[in-house]
Write a structure and sequence with these properties.
The protein is an alpha+beta fold. Helix content is 44%, strand content 21%. It contains 5 helices and 9 strands. It has a 5-stranded mixed β-sheet with strand order 4-6-7-9-8. Strands 1-2 form a two-stranded antiparallel ribbon. Helix 1 runs antiparallel to helix 2 and helix 2 runs parallel beside helix 5. The longest helix has 36 residues.
Length: 262
């Protein structure tokens, strides 16, 4: 009855052993099929993400070769655009390598006891100017008596910076973003809440997949790898990450980390 169940059925006549009988072998290949789908999606997505900057670089190069080099102001503009595309490709490659290392366990975590408010404050401080330039209010809510957690502070700050960056990118001018941490059942829950454009319901289950973008028209910048990296880093800490959102009503991205002394 499961529409997502894939079976391989092999029929083998038993011949002279049991004349007129056939051996049926049923093999559940659902997981194999799912892995194949992930592989195909990955190839399709990375091809799509590479096609745009490469096509742009080709067009810019051809324009320069056809005479734009003789127009210094135009040549300067084209070279700046080429630099932007190269930076985009470099970011994609570095994030792919980062994700690959994290998934294969080749990124050691330097676990220590950490005060959650310190990590939250450092991440907020890094993004405060960007939020102000976008016309957004950015606040923090974290009690000083919140329990310490066992974590790699730099890696969790990387997760928070990624979530804050996304909140800023998808929140219109005049909106608000709140970063908070609270303890709940031997865990600390970090949350980034915004008043932004929100995420369609059909995209919520896939938002943490690599390269997945809920709306390519409004998400044309970025690699689509940030949330996948965030998910793997949180899970490497023994935590979970999730999102609550409704289109047009903002989003709340949250993740949990075990406390140091439950």
């Amino acid at each position: 009855n499961n529409p997502h169940l894939f079976l391989r059925i092999v029929a083998t006549p038993l011949g002279h052993v049991l004349p007129g009988s056939t051996l049926l072998l049923f093999q559940d290949i659902t997981q194999i099929q799912q892995l194949e789908t992930v592989r195909q999606d990955f190839i399709s997505n990375i091809s799509h993400e590479l096609r745009t900057p490469l096509a742009s670089l080709k067009a810019l190069t051809e324009t320069l070769q056809e005479g734009a080099l003789e127009d210094p102001p135009a040549a300067h503009r084209f070279l700046e655009r080429m630099q932007t595309e190269v930076d985009s490709l470099s970011l994609m490659v570095s994030e792919l390598l980062e994700l690959s290392r994290i998934e294969s366990g080749r990124v050691p975590l330097h676990i220590t006891t950490v005060q959650p408010c310190e990590i939250l404050s450092q991440a907020v401080d890094r993004l405060r100017l960007q939020a102000e330039r976008s016309g957004l209010s950015l606040s923090i809510k974290c009690s000083d008596d919140i329990p310490e957690i066992l974590a790699d502070a730099k890696r969790l700050e990387q997760v928070l910076v990624n979530l804050l960056h996304n909140a800023i990118k998808f929140t219109p001018e005049g909106g608000a973003i709140e970063a908070r941490a609270q303890d709940r059942e031997n865990r600390v829950i970090f949350s980034i809440e915004d008043t932004g454009v929100g995420i369609p319901a059909e995209d919520l289950l896939r938002i943490f997949e690599r390269f997945y973008k809920s709306d390519r028209s409004r998400s044309s910048t970025g690699t689509g790898l940030g949330l996948a990296i965030a998910r793997h880093l949180v899970e490497a800490h023994g935590g979970n990450i999730w999102v609550e959102s409704a289109e047009g009503e903002g989003s709340i991205f949250s993740f949990s980390i075990p406390i140091a002394n439950p």
